[in-house]
Amino acid sequence: MVFESFADSLSFFLWSTFFIALIMGVVVNKTNFCTMGAVSDMVNMGDYGRFRAWLLAIAVALLGVSGLEYLGLAEVNTTFPPYRNGLLVYGENILGGLLFGIGMTFASGCGNKTLIRIGGGNLKSVMVFVIIALIAWYMINPFPGSDQTLFSILFYDWIRPISLELAGQQDIGAVISADNPGPIRLIAGLVIGLGLLAFIFRSADFRTSKDNILGGLVVGLVIITAWYTSSNIVINADDSLYSMSDYYSEWDMLAEDDSGKPERGAAVAAQSFTFINPIGQAYGFVQSGFDRAMISFGLVSVFGVILGSLLWSLLSRSFRIEWFVDLRDFLMHFIGAILMGFGGVMAMGCTIGQGITGVSTLAIGSLLTFFSIVFGSALTMKIQYYKLVYEDEASFYKALVTSLVDMKLLPSAMRKLDAV
Q: How far is CA 126 from CA 35, 113, 358, in A?
């Protein structure tokens, strides 16, 4: 896709992202594709249907991206965010994933689900959105009149040392073969992706679940499409072809003035869907006085998903205004939003951004984040369940220990409460 000006390429980049996000919003709402719901069904009912749908999205994205990268049709090394960064911040991946998993359980859904619920009329999710936006923005942007961010104040000094500087990139292919990672990436992507498909479709129930199959398939294809589109937009300038990020880095030489220049070059790098940082960008956009330079892939994806969900809610007549049931409901969503804001930025993504988009790059940090989110959410649900069943008899400590026993992480002799 060759364009004669940066303005034309940026317009195509943003509009294509918006329409892809719109499709995502429609399908996710229609099929009830929900990563938090997937963990809930698995933990509370032993139903793996929606979890398999999540895995299907991962498998489709992984197979697609592995193939496109091997053929030179997708750029996955220099991306935004930098999934394959040679600095493996495993402490941030694990802690951020745990916080996000706990937070999405309290707030009734992940970042993507928050957008879907807003489109469906859920005012609770509007509050969650605002809190995530504030925290996500100030986690990486300094406070007014300061050079300090929430991350630098609360986390940097003690968690950044919990990281590992690798010789090359952190994806599976580069770790196994730094000199020739390409074939290893393809093999790893095919083995993991096909293995996941075999596991997913072993279930007869899943094979008959049209919504779960549709949801997983479309979300996976959406991730692939965004990677492909953002990787293949080029500008013909002075008889040379430039990617948008390369053009941005040479802006003073290639452009006549700063008109139409994005606020950051990273925002026009190859990328796919993630939602916590982009929710933060929504606050930045408002704070800037709706500066057009702040309009980015992430920002238009947020509003595309909301609009897609709204369209399906209206078409299906499922649009319902919903508010907090009581003070406890408010506090749970409030705390959950705070944890998602901190955790999603620290882990560099959410259940979509790391759990599907990041995993499609085979990044080790993405895999750590995915497992941490699932574990944090599952453990929280088990503790909540024991507290609900046993009421005053179950202290947090007893519920926690018993939940860890149920998850085979502590010996059965340590059980404090009877299994339910």
A: 19, 12, 26
